[in-house]
Amino acid sequence: MTDLDSDVQEFRSYVARWVDERLIPQAEALDHAGEFPFELFRELGELGYFGAMYPESVGGSGMKSPYTAVTVLCEELARGSMGFAAGVCMQASTATHTLFHWGSPKLHELYLAPALRGEKIGAFAITEPNAGSDAASLRTKATKVDGGWLLNGTKIFTTNGTVADFITVVASQQPGSGAKALDLFVVDTKTKGFSVGRKLDKFSIHCSDTAELVLQDVFVPDDHRLAAGEEGGSFKNAYKSLTIDRIFTAALALGTGRAAYDAALQYAKERSQFGQPIGKFQAVQFKLVDMYAKLEQARLYTYHAAALADADKPITTEAAIAKIVAGDGCNEVCQKALSIFGGYGLMNEYPVQRFLRDSYFPMVGGGTSDVMRLLVARQLGF
Known about the structure:
This protein is an alpha+beta fold.
């Protein structure tokens, strides 16, 4: 991609090579096993890829365009396995982003630095059984006690939840009081009272660890609260991180869409019917052209949003649109890819069925496509 900075282009080439050599050969087995791929995860940490968004002063890579670099990372990894990529995206962005910006030097030493090296695994817990898109309705409670806080509540759909060493938990000092009462607390998962309620069995992204979490009088020291100095400030800052994360989710969709398109294009050249490759039939050609157009649209808008984030410009609308365009568009690409494979597309021996299953995740994870439309509508003045 010639429109990227030279260091980002070089970064892409390194990640792509790793995906081709290490991830793709194991992708189907990872999907079937449904287990968190610790070995591959640690490899990425040793290579320094988790630090793509951060400066060298905290153990990061010091990339000139950090948000674009993580967009590349998510796209390339999802080309191999979106399930694996989802766990990496959590580690390299949301689980560490708030910690980097609003955590103390002590928290950087305890959690951020080892997380960027792949030695500790992080997560971010916000969604609850009865509160998803409506974050202001969260019921997990933070009660002030001597020297810290007690957290009580239940979280669900937490990526990396069963394997995490630390989790940033969103809790309310006064449940029912809206976003102004929300705060962020870094919880060490070895703390008494913290437990994994259950590991969740999913339709897609099988090797992405997803959990229900239970907090019963979990004590969090004062210095583990990511306070911003004003009421409700820490959650406002977390919202900025979640907004950027929508760009990375769009990149996950783009990567899987690319994989599906490449597989369908190759199959159309190799599979013969009625004495010629099926790619010679206009119906198949039209599908491939439509797929290519959708991918180009998703690529252009996703990287446009990432460039705006790197320039520190407003991205509320652009990040939401990127997620809509890439999420919905790449799901359509994967559907068309499976149709080109015909009956073989339903067979587990071909990855196109996995691409289609996984393509539903970006339309839901991090906020559904309709919630993104609602956000854009509000930006339009409605």
